[in-house]
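Question (not urgent): is this output format expected?
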Amino acid sequence: LHRVSYFFLLNTTPIAPTMQNEVGENVDLYVPRKCSWTNRLLTSNDHGSVQINVGNVDPVTGLFTGESTPYAICGYVRNKSEADEALTALVKANDAKAAAGAQ
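Got this back:
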């Protein structure tokens, strides 16, 4: 019994596991995030990184629109105590871009 199962194990070709969608295209299992301020990759061992969702506000009424913009800040920026400055600058840049696009 052991010889037969061993024979089948030797004659099978190993198949590498691939992640494919319905079309047959290869897709990645994991897409890492990047820091919005420094463009560093947020690796799995960066336990100091955060993602903050800032709500979008209608400029006319001043009410929350139900949508939000995510910002990822890496642990390095937070460790240097620059996360508040980075988040403020990112939100201001996004507001200026949205205001320019609305006009």
